[in-house]
Design goal:
- It contains 1 helix and 5 strands; from the N terminus they run αβββββ.
- By secondary structure, it is mainly beta.
- It has a domain of 70 residues: SH3 type barrels.
- A 5-stranded antiparallel β-sheet has the order 4-3-2-1-5, with no helix packed on it.
Length: 113
């Protein structure tokens, strides 16, 4: 068990921001198109955190042009440039899957002060 931990430890990022479910986050990802490379931002509500260690992932949801879009990001992936918290959310659940069925103002999350 310690061998697995020691191997995965070198691939984990040292500075991971403090993320909570309900926060609005901006995830910047490195995208490779052909021989060019650029960064692309994805901003939305953090609706789930899963796993732990090197396998830790976050699910971010946003609505653009009336269509909901969810992406799962591995936190320790080398393609992720940065994760920034835009605003803090006040929720009482660990998973916010109920936001998928809500539209408009009902889909908002209160801000934590």
């Amino acid at each position: 068990m310690n061998l697995v931990d020691s191997v995965t430890q070198q691939y984990m990022k040292t500075e991971v921001p403090e993320l909570h479910v309900g926060d609005t986050v901006k995830v910047t990802v490195r995208v490779k198109e052909g021989n060019r490379e650029r960064t692309q931002a994805f901003e939305g509500t953090l609706i789930a955190k899963k796993h732990g260690g090197i396998n830790e992932t976050i699910t971010v949801r946003r609505v653009s042009y009336g269509v909901g879009c969810e992406k799962v990001f591995p936190i320790h992936s080398p393609t992720i440039v940065s994760i920034d918290t835009v605003r803090r959310g006040k929720v009482r659940r660990a998973k916010l899957y109920y936001l998928r069925d809500r539209v408009g103002k009902k889909a908002k999350v209160k801000e934590r002060i």
